[in-house]
Amino acid sequence: MKASDAFVRQLEEEGVQYVFALPGEENLDLLESLRTSNIEVVITRHEQAAAFMAATVGRLTGRAGVCISTLGPGATNLVTGIAHAQLIGAPLVSVSGQKAMRDNWQGAFQIVDIPSLMRPVTKESLTISDPNTIPTTLREAFKTAERERPGAVHIELPEDVAELDCAAPMQHRGSHRLPAPDPEALAAAVELINNAKRPLIIVSSGANRNRVRKALETFIARTGMYAVHTQMGKGVVSADCIYSLYATGIHKQDYVNCGIDQADLIITVGYNIVEYPPFVWNRHAKKNIVNIDFVPAATDRYYNPQVEVIGDIAATFKALGRMVTRDREFPIYRRTRELLDEKLAEDVPRQYPLHPAHVVRSVRRVLAYEDILTLDNGIYKLWFARLYKTYQPNTMLLDNALATMGAGLPTAMAAKMLYPNRKVLAVCGDGGFMMNSQELETAVRLKIPVVVLVLRDNAYGFIKWKQQDKGLPDFALDYGNPDFVAYANSYGAKGFRVGPDDDIIEVLNAAFVSNTVALVECPIDYSMNYEVFSKQLEHLVCA
Fold this sequence. Notes:
Layout: H1 3-13, E1 18-22, H2 28-35, E2 40-43, H3 47-61, E3 65-69, H4 72-88, E4 92-98, H5 114-118, E5 124-127, H6 134-146, E6 152-158, H7 159-163, H8 183-195, E7 199-203, H9 210-223, E8 227-229, E9 244-247, H10 257-260, E10 265-269, H11 278-281, E11 288-293, E12 307-310, H12 313-323, H13 331-344, H14 356-366, E13 372-375, H15 380-387, E14 396-397, H16 408-418, E15 424-429, H17 430-435, H18 439-445, E16 451-456, H19 461-469, H20 484-490, E17 494-497, H21 504-513, E18 518-523, H22 529-536
Parallel strand pairs: 1-2, 1-3, 3-4, 4-6, 5-6, 7-8, 7-10, 8-9, 10-11, 11-12, 13-14, 13-15, 15-16, 16-18, 17-18
Helix pairs in contact: 1-2, 1-6, 3-4, 3-16, 9-12, 14-15, 14-21
């Protein structure tokens, strides 16, 4: 068969349901092969959005999402989304076209060495030059992307290779199970845990999976041990579990650190130093550490585990639950939970523009436990990380690894495609939203009924807080915005605005009831960021 047909047939063998693409003339054979396949082609308005959507598919399913671009500028536009997938640990296979390898009459036009460009932000990056290697190359690409720790693989497919014949048979997708933990490693971990006076679990993004959630919650219930989540680990242990210390909000200092600082043993689960620096919880490098993960830890000065239990995390906790001393009391963490419940529930003024905490609590009341919240990147992310209680894995999707702006809306769109029966809300700052706001058209065209809450402060609010925190004058970070309601309406979406006399809960509910692509513009007041994050929390003294 033609090489492009073989390429698509192998994608079907991998179970690919969606391909997110902004193709060019170098992809036309591949596009034609996709036309006659059972794969749905989702054409986006920017390559970055295609990569964000593919990364979300990988993050939520464990199967690599796929995105496609043309050569040159199309491929360079993929880079941010690919780096996002690589750093958050989402399996992704990206594909870019290229000029003919053998008879390129256009010379150097749009030619960039894309495989070399992609290598620093992927697990592997390569060019297919022999059509007969397509099935094996793709099978290995998916295995590499999905192998722990998951990440991105990039493949370049030149247009003349896509036109050639491929005689190689398709490669069937295999199955595998992660190994059980080593008994000696388990015994060493049990000794450290049983001898610790104040062990504490830190749950991170690598553990944000349903099987891990069930095993970990059973272990916690049996042992009485407490757990705190990183921002990307939220939901692994339900917020209504009495042993949850919720999540780390800001890196420097927060109320939860009153508990973390007292721990003499930290048990990291699915931990990656990219999302929560170990200096924050081990600044003196004196805590004992047990690492439980699918793969060995990447260590640094502040993170050098004494024991690592490597293998299936769920199996590890099932084994530990039988071996660790049960029914222990940890009053310091009980008091920490009481402190958190008191401080995080403090009243905030009813005002206009709205207080960030009021926005977070309103969103929590609108969404059910299983509904999905996606966040772009901005100062509101800290408010949501601290205050938004999460009850199930992967129901709050944020990026605290690459922490890129512009991902909130595309992430929500992909989540809604995968879970059409759940409410999906994207919360974006005005700055981040405008970076990929054109994808409203994609959502309208494909009838993806997401709701977008745009928090408008007419500035890069996160950087303004940092600017103020450094004692620098207010400079260069303010901007103007469109009329977001009119902007949404112009795409065929439905626009809403939270006014001075409106209840944001009622406005959000109306947006969801519309059952179409909806945008809610909400003015927000960030004047308290410095007071809360810099004055109160940085100088917090734990009793």
